[in-house]
Design a protein that fits this description.
It is built from five helices and six strands; from the N terminus they run αααββαββαββ. It has 189 residues and is α+β, with helices and mostly antiparallel strands. α2 (34-51) packs across α3. The protein is globular and about 40 Å long. Strands 1, 2, 3, 4, 5 and 6 form a six-stranded mixed beta sheet that branches.
Length: 189
Amino acid sequence: MKRSVIALVVQAALALAFAMPAFAQASAPLAPSASTIDSNVTAALNSLYAHNQKARELGAKARAVLVFPDIRKGAFLIGAQFGFGALRENGQTVGYYRTAAASYGFQAGVKQFGYALFFMNDSALNYLNQSDGWAVGTGPSLVVVDEGFAKSLTTTNLRSDVYAFVFNQQGLMGGVGIEGSKITQIKPN
């Protein structure tokens, strides 16, 4: 009896996990207006640069920066996260994007955070622009910069295509993952 109940729970969890990406895409909130996204991106980028010298230095060298200022994540065994952002080249917005991800496993809680992706070369930026949604972790090489790595980062040892900085973490959930997130270009309201 116990085995059949456990098997049923596992099958239900797997079915939900495989259905979650489609559900997250269909139930994702409508994009805010372009002006709202732009003002949120500007505030987040200014705050990141004010508090992180390495991010500011990287921003000066980057070909473009994709900023998601407000990612929302919630989970109880099955989780979803989403947010909206803008791609900036030479300080100007050139496109708007949505990020979404689904996950399953031992997890519970809610979290809010932001992240910025620094595209260091044309080939990485072209990959973003030409793909029909970029699943982070595929395509260009990506390095998530934490405090330890940031100390050793110099503008002469940049080797990866994309560098990611996570910022403004709040909430009651351990860990932040951006790998596996799908980034898709949108047209805001």
